[in-house]
UniProtKB/TrEMBL annotation:
<keyword id="KW-0408">Iron</keyword>
<dbReference type="InterPro" id="IPR051329">
    <property type="entry name" value="NIR_SIR_4Fe-4S"/>
</dbReference>
<dbReference type="InterPro" id="IPR045854">
    <property type="entry name" value="NO2/SO3_Rdtase_4Fe4S_sf"/>
</dbReference>
<comment type="pathway">
    <text>Nitrogen metabolism; nitrate reduction (assimilation).</text>
</comment>
<keyword id="KW-0479">Metal-binding</keyword>
<feature type="domain" description="Nitrite/sulphite reductase 4Fe-4S">
    <location>
        <begin position="200"/>
        <end position="358"/>
    </location>
</feature>
<dbReference type="InterPro" id="IPR005117">
    <property type="entry name" value="NiRdtase/SiRdtase_haem-b_fer"/>
</dbReference>
<feature type="domain" description="Nitrite/Sulfite reductase ferredoxin-like">
    <location>
        <begin position="382"/>
        <end position="446"/>
    </location>
</feature>
<dbReference type="InterPro" id="IPR006067">
    <property type="entry name" value="NO2/SO3_Rdtase_4Fe4S_dom"/>
</dbReference>
<dbReference type="InterPro" id="IPR006066">
    <property type="entry name" value="NO2/SO3_Rdtase_FeS/sirohaem_BS"/>
</dbReference>
<protein>
    <recommendedName>
        <fullName>Ferredoxin--nitrite reductase, chloroplastic</fullName>
        <ecNumber>1.7.7.1</ecNumber>
    </recommendedName>
</protein>
<dbReference type="Pfam" id="PF01077">
    <property type="entry name" value="NIR_SIR"/>
</dbReference>
<feature type="domain" description="Nitrite/Sulfite reductase ferredoxin-like">
    <location>
        <begin position="124"/>
        <end position="191"/>
    </location>
</feature>
<keyword id="KW-0349">Heme</keyword>
<feature type="domain" description="Nitrite/sulphite reductase 4Fe-4S">
    <location>
        <begin position="463"/>
        <end position="572"/>
    </location>
</feature>
<dbReference type="GO" id="GO:0051539">
    <property type="term" value="F:4 iron, 4 sulfur cluster binding"/>
</dbReference>
<keyword id="KW-0534">Nitrate assimilation</keyword>
Length: 588
């Protein structure tokens, strides 16, 4: 597998031409990480011995490194999860009853752990026998045909079936039952989609600029790069064992906008556009992540690669992480822990020696991302770089859609656009390539007038929520419906004149990314006024996105959910310039 190669397929959608805007490059600065890794650390040479080796086409942890490994690593050793796909194990598994599956550890582990390599997450706690399926949607670009297919899948599951836009520009569909999985996988392939290697110890959906190719201010069209990354990582959706046994999950993004819609500071690898000696390429940030016990912002690798080396660099970083990463306590297995242990220079050298040329150029000082840039709102109608066309950003409340919604969105994309739309990390949708002459008719469509407004209220437009305990067994509280309800009630109490981003997550795993929000709510158990346990939230304040990014900090612990409305209203008044509605009306 060390000589693994893959022929990249051409992107399904024609890529619109992109030209970089002309401006004077400015230095881009990232906020300091919570714990700055040492630049130089004395590392024993034996520590740099790769811990995995290839056996019969799969990468396996060597016997001498198996002491103290976590239970998930033991499950991977017992059987490589990717075999369920590459050796058609899913076909046999899908024929078994859950009663028989639960009788044997091997098949129970298949259902609860290994199927995550196929993007299937068993909801044993709240939806026994049903799965969430996570797709791969590089750059968040999808088509009307793909969306209709997903709608057809979830519709058959009735009230159990729905779909969510995720915080990685992706779709997750819910309600899936095991006997249907082989047919669903075939259907995904027929419409150019895959769910492969989207969960557990794999590379997650590559994120890019949601306005790629249509934004008059874009630096570079990110779609070719995110497509190549996804194709490389999954071997064109056929399965890539070389990167299916990482110590933990791993996130990547390619930045194409001054707005940093891609949130580079929370990715394990972020490509930041920069020129060097007249060549276009990327400076690199590494190590950004969230977890229950630690959250850190990405730090500079002090390296630059040309655009031609995007894939070789990704391969080298993944190999360094795969080969050297710690596989004990799961709370200490993300890539930043390895960077901490080795020091950034040793980690950099390990990446360099895995590059084709065995070296890495130092970072460029010709960053193309402008530091002084006011982040633009993509919701509403905006002109494209293509004359006579516009894109329209529509608000999807907390990212939740039903089958009929998806069919209607597909119809709108076909009728008014080019049959394409983009998903965003804020759980919204953009319809591109709308002729200006069709804008009025599109804006008058009932779906946009009723549920998915291009002009939501100022607090609703910044609202993000994870799945919550409706479906997720790890969530402590319900999030989506509660986020909407609390926001609606707060809006009745105060008037806000500037955007405030509020994120909800059901547990400390922070899938809702509360640390990047202006105000974040992390589910917890609290005590009510009588001292009885109740659903509550820890409140975070001060998260920032953009070139002056900063992770928010804990503001108040254990607020009962029933008491959140007045607390949030007070926070908005004290910290965000909100005005109480009664005073506002009195002044009028």
């Amino acid at each position: 597998m060390s000589s693994f190669s893959v022929r990249f397929f051409a992107p399904q959608q024609p890529l619109l031409p992109s030209t970089a805007s002309s401006f004077k490059p400015k230095t881009w600065v990232m906020a300091a990480p919570t714990t700055a890794p040492a630049t130089s650390v004395d590392v024993d040479g034996q520590r740099l011995e790769p811990r995995v080796e290839e056996r019969e086409g799969y990468f396996v942890l060597k016997e001498k490194f198996r002491d103290g490994i976590n239970p998930q690593e033991k499950i991977k050793i017992e059987k490589d999860p990717l075999k369920l796909f590459m050796e058609a194990g899913i076909d046999e598994l899908a024929k078994m009853s859950f009663e028989d599956i639960d009788k044997a550890k091997a098949t129970k582990d298949d259902i609860d752990v290994r199927l995550k390599w196929l993007g299937l997450f068993h909801r044993r706690k709240h939806q026994y026998g049903r799965f969430m399926m996570r797709l791969k949607l590089p750059n968040g670009v999808t088509t009307s045909a793909q969306t209709r297919y997903l709608a057809s899948v979830i519709r058959k599951y009735g009230k159990e079936g729905c779909a969510d836009v995720t915080t990685r520009q992706n779709w997750q569909i819910r309600g899936v039952v095991l006997p249907d999985v082989p047919e669903i996988l075939k259907g995904l392939d027929e419409v150019g989609l895959t769910s492969l290697q989207s969960g557990m110890d794999n590379v997650r959906n590559p994120v890019g600029n949601p306005l790629a190719g249509i934004d008059p201010e874009e630096i570079v069209d990110t779609r070719p790069y995110t497509n190549l990354l996804s194709q490389f990582i999954t071997a064109n959706s056929r399965g890539n064992p070389a990167f299916a046994n990482l110590p933990r999950k791993w996130n990547v993004c390619v930045v194409g906008s001054h707005d940093l819609y891609e949130h580079p500071h929370i990715n394990d690898l972020a490509y930041m556009p920069a020129t060097k000696n007249g060549r276009f390429g990327f400076n690199l940030l590494v190590g950004g992540f969230f977890s229950a016990k630690r959250c850190d912002e990405a730090i500079p690798l002090d390296a630059w690669v040309s655009a031609d080396d995007v894939i070789p660099l990704c391969k080298a970083v993944l190999e360094a992480y795969r080969d050297l990463g710690y596989r004990g306590n799961r709370q200490k297995t993300r890539m930043m822990w390895l960077i901490d242990e080795l020091g950034i220079e040793v980690f950099r050298s390990e990446v360099a020696k895995r590059m084709p040329q065995k070296e890495l150029e130092r970072a460029s000082d010709e960053d193309l991302v402008q530091k002084q840039w006011e982040r633009r709102d993509y919701l509403g109608v905006h002109p494209q770089k293509q004359e006579g066309f516009s894109y329209i950003g529509i608000h999807i409340p907390v990212g939740r859609v039903q089958a009929d919604d998806m069919d209607e969105l597909a119809r709108l994309a076909d009728t008014y656009g080019s049959g394409e739309f983009r998903l965003t990390v804020e759980q919204n949708i953009i319809i591109p390539n709308v002729e200006n002459s069709k804008l009025e008719a599109l804006l008058n469509e009932p779906l946009l007038k009723d549920r998915f407004s291009p002009q939501p209220s100022i607090l609703m437009k910044g609202l993000v929520a994870c799945t919550g305990n409706q479906f997720c067994g790890q969530a402590i509280i319900e999030t989506k419906a509660r986020a909407l309800k609390v926001t609606e009630e707060v809006e009745r109490l105060v008037s806000v004149s500037r955007p405030v981003r509020m994120h909800w997550t059901g547990c400390p795993n922070t899938c809702g990314q509360v640390q990047v929000a202006d105000i974040g709510f992390m589910g917890c158990m609290a005590r009510d006024e009588n001292g009885k346990p109740c659903e509550g939230a820890d409140i975070f304040l001060g998260g920032r996105i953009g070139s002056d990014s900063h992770l928010g900090e804990l503001y108040k612990k254990g607020v009962p959910c029933k008491n959140l409305v007045p607390v949030v209203a007070d926070i908005l008044v004290e910290h965000f310039g909100a005005v109480p509605r009664q005073r506002e009306e009195g002044e009028d």
